[in-house]
Amino acid sequence: MLAIVIVTYFSERVIGDCLRSLQDAGAGDARVLVVDNDSGDGTVAAARAALPAVEVVPTGRNAGFAGGVNAGIAAASGCDVLVLNPDIRLAPGAITALREALAVPGTGIAVPRLTAEDGTVHFSLRRRPTVLRALGEALLGGHRAGRVPALGELVVAAGAYERPGTADWATGAAWLVSRACLDALGPLEERYFLYSEETEYMLRAGELGFAVRYEPRAHAVHLGGEQGTSSSLWALATANRVRLHRERHGRARALAMRGAVLLNEAIRALTRSGRGGAKHRAALRALVRLPRWPEQPGAAEQPGAADPPRTADPPGYVCFAAQDWWYHNRAHSDFQLMRALAGRRKVLVVNSIGMRMPAPGTTTHVTRRVLRKLRSVAKFLRQPFPGFHVMSPLPLPFYGSPVLRRVNALLVRAQVRAVCLALGLRRPVMVVTIPTAWDVVRPMPRHALLYNRSDRHSAFPEADAAVIGAMENDLLARADRVLYASRTLMAEERELTGERACFLDHGVDVDHFTRAAEPPPDLAAVPGPRVGFFGALDEFVVDVGLLERLAAELPQASLVLIGDATAPMERLTAHPNVRWFGFVPYERIPAYASGFDVAIMPWQDNAWIRHANPIKLKEYLALGLPVVSTDFPELAHYRDRVRVAATPEAFVAAVKAALAEGGPRPAAELRASVLGMSWSSRADRLLELAEGER
């Protein structure tokens, strides 16, 4: 399938003709998406008037070109994407020719022949930027230098525009990108705001084996002209050339590139007068000042624009999760926090690198665990949501061997660094949830290190307590902030963390956990009343014996269990009133839980649980369910809403009371009690702790 993505910003004058050119160009049944960067004019109305079937994707702000393209790509899942400027006019058959070019083996990006309205060919093909080429352009001028490949970036040979070929990169006014290329590269780098983002993307594509193919049969008229007449845009484009070189080659070579570009702009500023000289003087000022990333260009040049200039983008976030996005329940705190952040920061979640290698005799379901991890690793890097990336590195989790432990750290670090480089995450905030990530993170450059202390992992029964405990202590000592969900654990470790300790708590997706009118048909077929549990059925956490007793002593009720299991479920399913549904996707959990009459938390009494703060408690309450739980310290703050049982006999009695009487408070009050505990509010606090004064 094909999607056509057009990013607009005060484009009322040009968008109509662009859209009207699509059908004759060969758009066929392609989806057409206009991503509008908060235009203050009639852009959207003009787009709908020209093409009623257009899909408008509002960004709600001036997100820049790359931000707009990324939003369009995210909305066009599974499609090849044709990116167009709104001032492009496609000639008949242009899209058809580009699609044929994209089908050539090895091609990832196809670009057309661009001309002015009078037919003059635009020199749109480029060679890889180098310091020598920038120096050649400074001394000889772009067109003269372009005649010698080693001295010029611009391809100026007339023959190059008359026949198909390949280029290092090309002007990004019109380019068709294959889905395979999009999946491999991920999003465009948004920090450039305008200019150099397509350069970076196409160079990265070439390095991954995707050719940029030029097809002269595909013709497009490009009105253009803004960069040549606007001093601020010229200055931004010039400064971004240096930024691009810095990000790709480091500061030393960027300094040389900066000198060459400064020379070029200085010569033009001295030899040209009027507006021509003004834009070069603006570029000189930008190159001398050169903040790490550009401020958003002044919107005052666009009529009606109201966005104020913005400073350089804040840091991205890399989270080493304790779970795997592809097969664990996505309600876990690290996933929820990062999803809440993704709308405001670029986020990379690194799936769990484990705390031990599964082995017979020490680990349950060894083969299944290894196979599911390998399936996850095969996905490597994906983008489930805009701004939210998930990677599955290949680990060697032999933490008991010092040598293999160092090898594993080097292996995982190399993979994470490569992905961070591809995503433009230079000095991210590192959020570590699993202590074995400390070996990986220790030498990596970062804005801040946050230890998300959700559990005491050294208490995990299959872990090497001494090794994992040492990693935990290193993190507790070295982290800039230690974030706790358990007040008990925070109090016990106060001597190690001091003022760096912060109680973050867990949140709840109250919109997601809204009671459904009817349960799913397979649950509706289970006789009521229903006593239910959803979540991981791990034997070291869930008291299977207590569940057996509950099933035996409440034969009139159905015990409904939802979740993946490492516990011996045959013990439970042998009871006629027990129904185990297995794994249910997170998206469907609220509908199933809506069919519970009572929700339970039948935990073991161990160190893990004593330091826990289960997220499902707030999810149960958001659904307005009566809750019965075994006792653990964090429940001290919920005793007015939860029936708490200290013994198996008391637990069974509490479930009977809940079935007969309902919850301690009405369902509406239970839900209202957690409405202020959103994940968004937790993410706000996380941002404050990570990016504020430390």
UniProtKB/TrEMBL annotation:
The keyword Glycosyltransferase applies. Residues 4-127 form the Glycosyltransferase 2-like domain. Transmembrane segments: none annotated. CDD domains: GT_2_like_c. Its EC number is 2.4.-.-. Keywords: Glycosyltransferase, Transferase. This is Glycosyltransferase. It comes from Nonomuraea bangladeshensis.
